[in-house]
Amino acid sequence: MPAARHPLRRRSAVADAPVRVVIVDDHSIFRSGLRADLDASIDVVGEAADAASAIEIIGATRPDVVLLDVHLPAGRGAASTAPDAGGGESVIRGAAPVVPATRFLALSVSDAAEDVVRVIRAGARGYITKGSSGAEVSRAVHAVAEGDAVFSPRLAGFVLDAFGAAVGETAATSDELDRLSAREQEVMRLIARGYAYKEVAAELFISMKTVESHVSAVLRKLQLSSRYELTAWASERRLL
User: Fold this and answer.
1) Which Pfam families does the record associate with it (predicted)?
2) pLDDT for position 159
3) How much is the pTM?
């Protein structure tokens, strides 16, 4: 008699299956480079360079996740040579009804608030910038495939502003926040948004050493141990 299939083994096989991905970007060199940088647990099942062909390929391949540029040519016609600011948005709205199980992750060079908000409103589950490494993109793909939302740290404030707070709601000033000086609060917000020390120094016209001193003071006063804890602390209080 044939051996009975073990239910735990079947679930393990499903869990170990690669995440099926379609890459949508109008630059072929970027698509090739991204495909090469993604880890072995991701299977690229299709590519598209414009919105119209993307909708067709997504419908045909039914991927788990679509890695989607925000600015795309519309496709099919002379007018398609110019990037369409709503191209990524139109892909989501055109494909999502056909493939409701597919999730969309925006991957763009743009970190403009209007681009972030528009594509998230259309239905994207996350938004990361093209400065991300192959390993970071791979982790984001897995997280989105599992149902999580993923954003580059610097973009978290845009998302919270647009979706996280009720109309008219403002961040309450807590006793913890009152412990920080005005300059420490400025440094805290930039660090929590994902800025590097050098970027904070340039933004506030202070030295790197001064930034380091402020960060140490902020972490000590808030009783936190890392910038990651600081980001979580600031997000919970809608301070980004």
Assistant:
1) GerE, Response_reg
2) 62
3) 0.60
